[in-house]
Task: structure prediction
Amino acid sequence: MWQRIQTFYMVVVAILFAVMLTTPIVDFTGVSGEYVLNFFGIQSVSTKPELILNTMFLSIIEIIIAIISLVAVFFFKKRIIQIRLNVFNAILMIGYYILLSMYIYIAGKDGNLDFHLRMPVAFPLVSAILTYLAIRAIGKDEALVRSFDRIR
Result:
């Protein structure tokens, strides 16, 4: 289980999304002040943080992706289920970007704010690539096991 490359890929995906939960993703600046999008939502950066927009669904997707990625590691004997979980994870990552862009658009339009992306915005893209590589590696393992069954 732990010696497979796809396990490494899936664990890295979980780590990247765990980091995204703890760091700010987008900075917003406007006439009314500075704001940041983090786990709790879009908040002001002042000493008393004020919640401007609740981004609960974005945080839920981050948590689900991290959990599915870790759960998929333990399905090493059921490779088809592992592939399906990773495909579902990739779809969730696309949904994450769609939802993130909607929140940025809403904050920019309603609050008249400019946005600046931070490094963690690229983590879902990196995770999608790693998930694709994991799917390919799992598929190769499945093909190898099936070829051994055919020889017997």
Summary: Strands lie at 26-30, 33-37, 42-44, 51-53, 114-117.
